[in-house]
Batch of 3 targets.
Target 1
Amino acid sequence: MSFITANWNPLGEAFYRKTELYEMSWNLRDGLRDSLVAAAPYGGPIALLREPHRRSPSSRPQLEIYSASGVDIASFPWKSGPVVQLGWTVSDELLCIQEDGSVLIYDLFGSFKRHFTMGQEVVQTQVLEAKVFHSPYGTGVAIVTGSSRFTLATNIDDLKLRRLPEVPGLQGKPSCWVVLTQDRQTKVLLSNGPELYILDNTSCTAVCPPGFSPQVGNIVQMAVSFSYKYLALFTDTGHLWTGSSHLQDKLSEVDTKKTPTPKHMVWCRRPKSQQPSVVLMWDRLLLVAGVCGDTIQYPSNQFPLEDPCVLVGELDGVRIISSTNQELLQEVPLVCQDMFKIASMAPGALLLEAHREYEKSSQKADEYLREIKEQSMLGEAVRQCVEAAGHEYDPSTQKSLLRAASFGKCFLTDFSPDQFVTTCRELRVLNGVRENGVGLPLTHTQFKQMTLQVLIDRLVYRQFYPLAIEMCRYLKIPDYQGVSRVLKHWASCKVQQKDLSDDAIARAVCVKVGDSPGVSYSHIAAKAYECGRTELAIKLLDSEARSGEQVPLLLKMKRSQLALSKAVESGDTDLVYTVVSYLKNEMNRGDFFMTLRNQPVALSLYRQFCKLQEQETLKDLYNQDDDHQELANYYVTASYREKRLDSRLSLLQSAIDEYNKAKNEFSAKMTEDEMRLLRFQRKLDDEKGAGLLGLSLQATMEALLSLGLHKQTEQLYRDFRVPDKRYWWLKLMSLAEKEEWEELEKFSKSKKSPIGYLAFVDVCMKSNNKYEAKKYVSKVTPEQKVKAHLAVSDLEGAADAAIERKNDAEMGAILSRCSASDRLLIDRLNRARAAAAKK
Amino acid sequence: MAAHLSYGRVNLNILREAARKELREFLDKCAGSKAIVWDEYLTGPFGLIAQYSLLKEHEVEKMFTLKSGRLPSADVKNIIFFVRPRLELMDIIAENVCSEDKQHSPRDFHILFVPRRSMLCEQRLKEQGVLGSFINIDEYILDLIPYDGDLLSMEYESAFRECYLENDQTSLYHTAKGLMTLQALYGTIPQIYGKGECARHVANMMLRMKREFAGSQNQILPVFDTLLLLDRNVDLLTPVATQLTYEGLIDEIYGINNGYVKLPPEKFAQKKQGEASKDLPTEPKKLQLNSAEELYAEIRDKNFNAVGAALSKKAKIISAAFEERHNAKTVGEIKQFVSQLPHMQAARSSLANHTSVAELIKDITTSEAFFDNLTVEQEFMTGVDTDKVNTYIEDSIAQKDPLIKILRLVCMQSVCNNGLKQKVFDYYKREILQTYGYEHILTLNNLEKSGLLKPQTSSRNNYPTIRKTLKLWMEDANEQNPNDISYVYSGYAPLSIRLTQVLARPGWRSIEEVLKMLPGPHFEERQQLPAGLHKKRQQGENRTTLVFFLGGVTYAEIAALRFLSQMEDSGMEYIIATTKLINGTTWIKSLMDRPESQTP
């Protein structure tokens, strides 16, 4: 433990440390010499384009892709044009910028994805230099061409090329340049000798950094910080100027006393940095120049002599990749300084010491603890230990810090364990992905910035499925965002494995994915179909729970029958309609009808559709199913649309035939009647202009009666076997309406009324003829007597009848009609009621 | 504004708010001023979700009714069509869009499908060549509309017809989707019971949808304990009977639409003293009916014969309250009295309104025709002479009473006799065809297909068994102070509600025999709850059941369920959901077929 500060170097007030991340797994024969190298930040992959050993027209350069730990991922001979620059996008895709301005995009595994070009004119002028940069908009590319013009693309996924204005006096390429993203604008900062220019969309402006004296020489190297906030300029006299990238403030100026142009120059900062610095690298020297003016020189004995290195700027430090190993250079976080600085009295440091004594079973542990507690700093001490653990790379250091924190926690009540638990979990994950085999050397700060979601995505992209799943489960991420997402990617990748049979893949996918929530089999199947494996896609679709999801793909794969049954299964009628209309266009009519016949739900939906849209088809459908009943109904409906009587009759005749076939004798008979009636109406309309056509039988008879055509009425009454009752009602009402009272009386005596005589009373009363009504009261049956008397407002008569019948309810009804003036009657009724009640 | 939705056992305002939020989001998607072109059918249901003021807040400046031809001119940036996904409407929209003046400042078109977008319709728009003219094509998932504190309706008028006549289960798909939405807001319903083919189908879809969304399980403590799905065709009798509750009668006589009723204006004329009431208003009086109105909430579910007493009691209370002013002596008392004035005045005008409505209804219920009709209904329900041709029906046909009245009675007789004897059956049909016209043969076919009107197939009539087992007829129904649900039909206890009641206690196992006689399967399903969401029931806490009537429910049935909720020892509260609020008339109407040339 005491050696923890061994690799610390002071810089101003702060310390810098250099930690080894990996011994590289690769075996590079020639080191990084003669290679184009691109390493992505956040512990991303490394790409190498190695020039061939012997320069001959036939030999090709080799493109190699490694994980950050140097594990071989892909390698293939470069067959395209000469490459100027390599770079990685934010989503770990490799950009190869060629001399002719075309940019080729490869995925992590070296398979070609697509390409674009930085402008046609570049083919002539050639790319001299190029840079890949990241901005809030995505990954961008900037080039400078042989005609000294700059072209920018701020987001390669939404390619818009911008040609920047000319730089006055610039010949060839500038001595150095960087891309800046400021205020949502992307600019180029470049130097040409002692001049410094800012180049934006519209103009090229000469600028002078504050406090930058022209005497210090020509600018030969420049660097912007990870956040684009700071700028460093190096001149050929060895001066290093640092300041804000807005060129408003100057931070410092350091004389490095080294005149050669450094190979690399990178900012080394961290969030809440006390002492930011710029790291410069020459062939045999690494120099950390602090903003305070102090420097640290890492001499060649700590540093591979011959081998060139690559510097990768990170959010919180600089990674130094050599052919043999990889180190992280960073400012020691403040909390770690407090913990480990020699003779630190910070509460965390004391707690760590206390725990160490405790482990040794020494009573000093108590003394240390007491000291912390006296200052009531124990909570702070625990927090410090936990936080410092997060920043440490070495698991044994992490452990001792966390143990100390855990020890301290025992003496605290009401201390939230959240930070401790979270840090433990995150460190476990980080240690997992830092493993050589995985090779993502993320610091805790980077991890927090990157978020867990992105980390899972990166693991999935690198096809570390089991690790990703383990992680999701360990961190208890809801399945939707965690395990299911991983499985989805796994399955989409699995279906592309050409060496496995459809069955084997389908089985493997179903076993692994099972019914994990949120994994869409149709999505996986679509992927399989994309790869030309239709059979596999169908097998996979079988496992899809959402029938609705299966349909579009099945249609696409021309499995329309299956699509139809899945659509029916989903219950979504719109989906069924969709498939049906698809089938209708795809199949010949016979097959189409046959298919529908096997799917009753679809068939009835299609019938509905036809009812509204295609009447003719409807008929065909019924015909094909021998559905005579519906066919008959169809003809009936159709008959009402016909204006001409003869076509109407012929449709009705067809209806009768069908009703007969359907053994629906009643309907057939009724339709015959209808035809008979229509013919009759037409005849009378023609003869007498009666205007009968379309009336019901009853209405026809009514109309005939009111026209005085009794004979014809009688004829209908007989021909259509109208029941006596209704005929009597008809005559009764018709005669009353025409006020033919004599006729009515005659009619009433023609035979015994089948509807009784109360109806006569009521109908007369409706015509306000009490005189006539009274004629029929006496004829009414005993049960209806009271009602009849009441109807003609003869209370006395009603009372007589009721008393005779000894009917209490009737007496009550009469009473309710009595007014105060009917005193005698009321008494009489009441007496009768009482008498009836006694019995 | 919609506070009455949140008073009940289940706060249905959550559902309304969710619907409003979605509407606002869609409107904001179309930036700038807008005009809405309405599918007329939707305006009623939408009124229950959002008033014009909400639309106005989101820059809706004009509203039109969807009709063919050119769109009216309106100086707005966006034209939004609010439509049901129907092909015939797509054709109208296409016509609208095509005849749009291209020279004029171009207006942006959008479509909002209610309740669900449809590929078929989009295909149609594509065929008409206008699909590309629409900037937004969206769906507004409005399945279950909160109607009142304990009532949800889909306002899907043709649901029964589609399910039982046309074998089109679209409405059931919407039902299942609506229930899923409901569960997303109110938690998974652990128990599902059902009776009927449609109920089975809905339950199956729900269970499958739940599987499809497995994993996105919601972590809401379930509000509903039980869901009961009931097919309307399990109980065909109840809707054809005349409802005898106050609300039921208003609906039977005047028709309640989306919570509003239109009444003849005469009774509502403002009678000022000394002014001859010559200029009677001619516009029908429009009243909103829901539980927000205290008095209405009190009397709506009473048997109409008990309404008069309730109204006069209320009148006494109100005038007593007004009399209080004479007792108010101190400034404080007067102040308190004044502060109550608005409430009292509202109560007084509400009383005046309902007194008028009650008078209107009373004129009808005391008529002989109403009495005779009711007598026949009750005879049928008690099983008197259901196997013979009924004289009253015969006479009514002869006097050309409205066809729907005849159909209601004939259907009722058929249901109560488990089908009519072939001779009786044919006789009625012939009478109807000869009197009302042969075109009604289609309607009769429909009624036959839906089981409402049918010939007797077996000699056994099982209606009496059902009636006795379920106690569908209660001889001594107490209309004033009911002790049983039979009060809603003055003697007849709705079969559907009896099933609900028995399910709660003692359970359906006790009536297996009867359940087998009713159409369709009965079933029970359980939905697994995520651990930790199992309700810990307090002692004496009521359980909540959502009763879903597939194919419609009447106000009297709702009244009966509310009565059960209020019964002290029932231990169960009911929330009611349905595809559509119906009565015998609207229901039979939905089953009628009118050949095109006959439609007025």
Target 2
Amino acid sequence: MLIFSFFKTLTDQVITVELKNDLSITGTLKSVDQFLNIRLDGISVEDPERHPHMMAVRNCFIRGSVVRYVRMAAKNVDTTLLEDATRREIKDAKK
Amino acid sequence: MDHAAAAQISEPLDLVKLALGERVFIKLRGDRTLTGTLHAYDAHMNLVMSQVEESVHIVDVTDAGQPLPPRVERRNVEMLFVRGDSVILISPAQQ
């Protein structure tokens, strides 16, 4: 739930999703669900020469399980808040 | 370890809690390693890290099928989410 909430705070921001097949897609995060499936708008592919079949795609829905990384701007993330939320989640899970 | 600290550690992930806000070393599937500051994690070992250096360890093979000496490709990312299913191990970063 923690990471799901974290991604919800990133909606409408530009992120780069790197998939397990090395395809990197940059776009605006429109929505995310509990499986960390991701909907991206206005996408561009990092290496279009290697992935020409992606050129016509404007927006996409990415299955959470194929994601390796999500890169984002550090200024959009409150790291102290994240650490506190993580500690709280661990504590709640033990009850 | 003193008694109070031992009481708080009852499962393996409790050791990861001690690394929150600290530099950690992560080994991932696909011959990748990361070092960075850990800010969040959950039971799936999904991670949020900042100031990350990613190293991809590559062994090229000659046309004759002989392996060349391993090389490392490095990359820096300021804020990174790592999906837990790629994670092999988490360790405090060695100096």
Target 3
Amino acid sequence: MAFAHAGTATASKPGRAGMRIPYLLLLPGLLWLLLFFVLPLINLAETSTKTPIAGGETGAYEQTFRLQNYVDAFSENSAQFSRSFIYALLATVLALAISYPLAYAIAFKSGKYKNILLVLVIAPFFTSFLLRTIAWKQILGEEGPVISILRTFHLIGADTSITATALAVITGMTYNFLPFMTLPIYASLERIDPRLMEASGDLYANGLTTFRRVTFPLSMPGVVAGTLLTFIPAAGDYVNAQILGNPTTKMIGNVIDSRFFRIVDYPTAAALSFTLMAAILILITVYIRRAGTDELI
Amino acid sequence: MANHPDAAKTGDLKLSSITKSFGDFLAVDDLDLVIPKGSFFALLGPSGCGKTTTLRMIAGLEEPTSGKIYLGDTDLTDTKSYRRPVNTVFQNYALFPHLTIFENVAFGLRRRGIKEVKESVEKVLALVELAHLRDRKPTQLSGGQQQRIAVARAIVNRPALLLLDEPLGALDLKLRRQMQIELKWIQTEVGITFVHVTHDQEEAMTMADTIAVMNEGRIEQLGSPADLYENPKTAFVANFLGQSNFIKGTVESTSGADQFVNLQGTRIAIPAARNSSTHKSLLVGIRPEKFRIHNVGDATTGNKLEGGVVTDISFVGVSTQYQVEMPWKQELMIFEQNDGGAPNLRKGDAVTLSWEPHFTFALDGDEDVKSGLAGVDGE
């Protein structure tokens, strides 16, 4: 007994020291999050319930714990809120429709060109997000190729334009977030054992059924990851609406941007930010529950 | 969905001059093969011999470069895999990770729109004794259980032909033994033709009625396990199935059913039927366990070789293995059962070897004695 006890005691010692290592490795990340995410968030929460000092300068606020700020912020901007979610949803659906076949082709049909195609998917990241969005303005603009092609085939009238429309904003967002959709889907398709598709064929499923019953369900983790990586930033985006849109296509990101930096209405901007964050959190929680990906991973 | 004819309506599987090449590499070379309905047939060979490619062509996962595949009178060559009355047990089982065990087994039935899914699945799960796991996911099962589910998923469809691609390769030795017996039992139970691909000669010999030994895309020899072991026609087969001693000799005379061979100066007898060569110079093969080892001067029967010296002895439990150096400087391997029949020997002792003539086989003298040796250890 005594020996057994001594044995377990010595055995657990290195174990306990080893237990600490994961926490030590987490430390830099946690500090970073604390400093650049949690503290600003607390600051933002604090700002969101302030009110202007009576008779004070522009931008001078005092803490009054006014929760009504949230109600006001939401009711004044409900149109921009719903627009943000609708645009983000449309951009996500479009991105999925474009990315899935692309990712599928890269994963299963590209052969030796696989790496080149993957680099091409990421290539847009080599230039700035802003620059790419401005380039879209050129492409969709009056002198651009899209308009002239559409006009040549009389698909649109001579006085119809695409820039400064909702369509431009949505296509711009779709384009900007394509890699975020493509890469996770590619990664989960690539991981599927090709023998599973063979097994499906062996068990009397034709190509389409194999896709529906085996390939697609197994790629769901990638689809969920891709849609989240697209939808979340798209819902909060303001660059596309700013560059490619018009005043009637303003999204909630544009409102927050102008409240913060133009009107200097910090409390409303902060309240809007929190409302947006909460709305996104609720939406994705429902979505992940529905998709049931925890069983797949 | 694809409907397939009843297994009962189909006949033998026939491969007719099947060739498959991948670029310059000839995986299967003009193969002719008939697999009788209801048999347990093994394709045995080292990795890269074309056995898996042959299996995949039967399954429809690979298209032959030329040749035809028939099942009974039906030409299956251009039939898509999902329309063939053939199911496969894949090497790593390829169970669908997102489906339950029940749904995995039901997959084929559902695709064919068969009504009594629940009944059939439960029956086959009972057959493999895993009915209690029906709601689990494949990753929650042990290797042996996954293996049995893979078999269940295939046989529930009552295919005319069940293909098994190294089905036991991922299991440990003990489990493998158990599954060999179980698979054999299932085959007798369901009466489906099993085509089993393996590189493990012991596995093939335990389970199959007929074995085709493959090498470099061709069939070296086809026969029952005992037939292949006792009377191999090539050095490759002799080496791939068990161990052999090869001694060079020349034919001296033939009288009736017996041939007399000069074996390094000693005259021995071989039944003519066991000589697969027409050449004068032969490679005479004797399996290590067929030799008997004697003290010099002891009485012997059958063929006899004198002048041996024991150079190594290793005790392996059921038997003792001796290395004996012969006067022509060749080391022979002898296995003796530890049943008290063999004399007590030590290194350096002079011995005489004997064996019964009908345990001898003879090959062409120009056969490569090393052929097939690399395959003995498997992958």
